[in-house]
Design goal:
Helix 4 runs antiparallel to helix 10, helix 5 runs antiparallel to helix 9 and helix 6 packs across helix 8. Helices cover 69% and strands 4% of the residues. It has 221 residues and is mainly alpha-helical. A hairpin with a 3-residue loop joins strand 2 and strand 3.
């Protein structure tokens, strides 16, 4: 890896974490010179990093203005969740036959950590969101179709802010539903039952989409 490529990856990692953590909000512009100064970098690695993040769905480029985090309407988020419902069923069906026993144990360990999270503090919300993302994306690691898994990750990235706001707004009281659905999905994966896994996953995504639609205030903040 060249020096510029290594620097670009480092900048991309920094910005990716900041966007997914909500430190850079939808609609917020990312100033190349400010990022370069903060990270002690030249502008070239920052520019390359923004191209990487654009491919991942975390930023968008507007000519003559620069890069910013995309801001989606309620309808756009609804459509993205409908896309997720279809694509992730396909991803899980492609993944399950190739998951090892160690992969399944890893999923169970992640779910155990989710269920052990304390309720009611901001740090727990942040960790829940990270573990929830890890649980689902790890369940697709057996899928050998790169175009499919990259599309799924891009859709997850594009709605991360709205998911975070929703979880914060609804509080830990609804987490039992997520845990129950995760356990059903984990059981189907353990039994290598693709049909049950697809059905459970589709319902899991659909429920979140419907509940998001009950909170239009999320999309006006």
């Amino acid at each position: 890896m060249t020096e510029v490529a290594a620097a670009s990856a480092r900048v991309a990692d920094h910005l990716r974490r900041a966007i997914l953590a909500g430190e850079i909000a939808p609609g917020e512009w990312i100033r190349q010179e400010e990022v370069a100064e903060r990270l002690g970098s030249s502008r070239l690695p920052v520019r390359e990093a923004l191209r990487i993040l654009e491919a991942e769905g975390l930023t968008e480029h507007e000519r003559h203005k620069g890069a910013r985090v995309p801001s989606l309407t309620m309808h756009e988020v609804d459509v993205v969740y409908r896309m997720r419902e279809q694509l992730e069923q396909l991803a899980i069906s492609e993944s399950i036959p190739h998951l090892t026993s160690a992969d399944v144990r890893h999923l169970a360990e992640i779910q155990g950590r989710i269920e052990a999270l304390p309720k009611g503090d901001d740090a727990a919300v942040a960790e829940f969101l990270q573990l929830d993302r890890e649980f689902h994306l790890s369940s697709y690691t057996g899928c050998t179709i790169d175009q499919l898994t990259s599309s799924v990750t891009r859709l997850w990235n594009s709605t991360a802010h709205y998911r975070r706001t929703f979880v914060t707004l609804t509080g830990p009281g609804r987490r039992w539903v997520i845990n129950a659905e995760h356990r059903l999905l984990l059981d189907a994966i353990s039994r290598r039952d693709v049909v049950d896994a697809e059905r459970t996953l589709a319902g899991h995504i659909r429920r979140t989409r419907i509940e998001l639609g009950k909170h239009p205030e999320i999309f006006t903040r």
